[in-house]
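User: My notes are a mess, but here's the protein and zinc ion's SMILES. Can you give me a structure?
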Amino acid sequence: MDLTSYAELAVLLINSPDRLTGLEGLRALLEEGGRYRPGCRITRSDLEALRDLREELMIVFETAEAGDEEAVVDRLNSLLIHHPVQPQISGHDGERWHLHLTEGGRMADQYAVGAVMGLATMITDLGVDRLGLCQAPPCRRAYLDTSSNRSRRYCSERCASRANVAAYRARQKVGQ
Ligand SMILES: [Zn+2]
Ligand SMILES: [Zn+2]
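Assistant: No problem, the inputs look usable. Here's the predicted complex:
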């Protein structure tokens, strides 16, 4: 089980506030994250729990951006206590036996366990500075920097080129 890939669940949640307005949106978000199984029950309480989790995760990324590693670790440790891993071996949909981080609880609880364990694994394997927020204003989407030289600054190619154009224009102005 590649736990760092679970960190993508945190990124997906942070970057999808527009999906957290109703149950249809939530279902789409879960499908995008590969977390939706037909027939699984999602309710308004999942929606509220994931909205809260989104705010907590956003603070983790903002704290990482500010370079306060101790505070990032404190926050993730407290999230790990609130969303404990309870691993279970599972087999479903014709898949081989594999581990689930947790089975019980609401859909939102299972999502939270994955997202938080993913971030915890990410920072312990690769470093706190791997959690980033896009530097092309006004975008503040989250990303995971998996580049070998830790050089990523933007959430997407689109934001990177927008920032390049803005920087170019700023230089032109200085030159005038
Ligand atoms: Zn499974
Ligand atoms: Zn961006």
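Helices lie at 7-14, 23-32, 44-65, 69-82, 107-125, 157-175.
User: Great, I'll file this with my notes.
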